[in-house]
Amino acid sequence: MDLQQLKYFLALAKELHFWNTSAKMNITQSALSRHIQSLENELGVQLFYRDKRNVKLTPAGKFLQEKWGEELSQMESFHQLARQIHLGESGTIRIAHPDSISSSVLPDFVKKVSAAFPRLNLELFQLTNEIQEDYLKNYKIDLAFSRDINTYSAINEKKLCRENLSFVLPENHHFKTLADITEETLKEQKFLLTTGDDGSSYNLLVQEVLDFYKINPGSYIRCEFGSTIISLIKNGLGISILPHSYHLHQNTGIRFIPLPFLTDLYIQWRKDDPNPILKNILELV
After folding, report:
1. What's the rounded Cα separation, in Å, for the pair 119 and 92?
2. Nearest Cα to Cα of residue 223 among 248, 210, 242, 251
3. Contacts of 160 (CB under 8 A, 6+ apart)
């Protein structure tokens, strides 16, 4: 018993006419008859009552028409889904991203992917840089946006864009422009800094800013995510250095003063990853 025999059976069960069925299935009437007889012999079940004028389903035939019809419809759905997965149009893609692009790059990216592949499931993660690299190497995610330069040989990388870092301050802070910010005026400031590997390219860039302004914060708070830092800034707990794109998060009660230091945004993925979904996503990016 094969799938084609089931299709012949269901077609004949619907038409109840050998000549009409053979014409629709593009098969000779004698070949159709042989397939049905072979199916009956294999099952040990009579599927049709037939004489020279009439073809009728037996009770067993009616039962199998209902059950096989349901299964064949489900199988066709499975086959279609498999084709979509093969073409990279369906399935799941897991993407990690920094908090800073949640209101800038990420919404446009997700909108573009969803429009191109409406059956594709997207899972989004916010991870620290160290965890993100581990997840990518170990197939826990498929794609990563990062502000850190990749140093792992098995990961590909492409730079997407760059933007300024900014001082982020409470709205009522006395710093108004870059001219107000000097080594002297920064001495009394409490800093809120992101955690992470001090050797990462992003944290090295933040350290450049601190060194440039000769900032040596004796008292500071460290936190993983910029959105939490912004909440602390709103509550008057200090100032911070963050990517300027955080100003798109519709925050009230804070101000951004852009700095002449640029942070890059990269997209990273495993080399030689055969996933067709990933290939389609990268073409969109």
Report:
1. 9
2. 242
3. 105, 145, 265, 266, 267, 285
User: Among 40-44, 83-87, 165-169, where is mean pLDDT lowest?
Assistant: 83-87
Distances (CA, A) of 218 to 188, 191, 215: 10, 9, 9
- In angstroms, the CA 161 to CA 213 distance is 26
With vertex at residue 198, the alpha carbon angle to CA 178 and CA 240, rounded to the nearest 5 degrees, is 30
Tokens 């492409």 sit on residue: 158
Task: Residue 244: name the closest of 151, 172, 178 by CA.
Answer: 178
Indicate if the alpha-carbon torsion angle 251, 252, 253, 257 is positive or negative: positive
| Neighbouring-strand partners of residue 206 | none
The rounded distance, in Å, linking the Cα atoms of 188 and 247 is 25
DSSP H helices in 126-285: 129-137, 183-186, 201-212, 226-234, 276-284
Are the C-beta atoms of residues 149 and 157 closer than 8 Å to each other? Answer: yes
Structure tokens at 159: 């730079």
- Going by C-alpha positions, the residue among 160, 189, 172, 141 that lies closest to residue 100 is 160
- Reduce the DSSP state of residue 118 to 3 states and report it: coil
The answer to whether 123 and 92 have CB atoms below 8 angstroms apart is yes
Residues in the chain: 285
CA atoms of 276 and 89, how far apart (whole Å): 8
Cβ–Cβ < 8 Å for 19, 60: no
pLDDT digits (tens, 9 = 90+) for 238-279: 999 999 999 988 778 899 999 999 999 999 998 988 888 888
User: Alpha helix (H) ranges present in 16-138?
Assistant: 18-24, 29-43, 59-86, 105-116, 129-137
